[in-house]
Amino acid sequence: EAGVTQFPSHSVIEKGQTVTLRCDPISGHDNLYWYRRVMGKEIKFLLHFVKESKQDESGMPNNRFLAERTGGTYSTLKVQPAELEDSGVYFCASSPWRPPEKLFFGSGTQLSVL
Amino acid sequence: GENVEQHPSTLSVQEGDSAVIKCTYSDSASNYFPWYKQELGKRPQLIIDIRSNVGEKKDQRIAVTLNKTAKHFSLHITETQPEDSAVYFCAASIWKPDTGNQFYFGTGTSLTVIP
Question: CB 3.0–4.6 Å: which of B9, B19, B101, B107 could bond B77 by disulfide?
Answer without folding.
Answer: B19
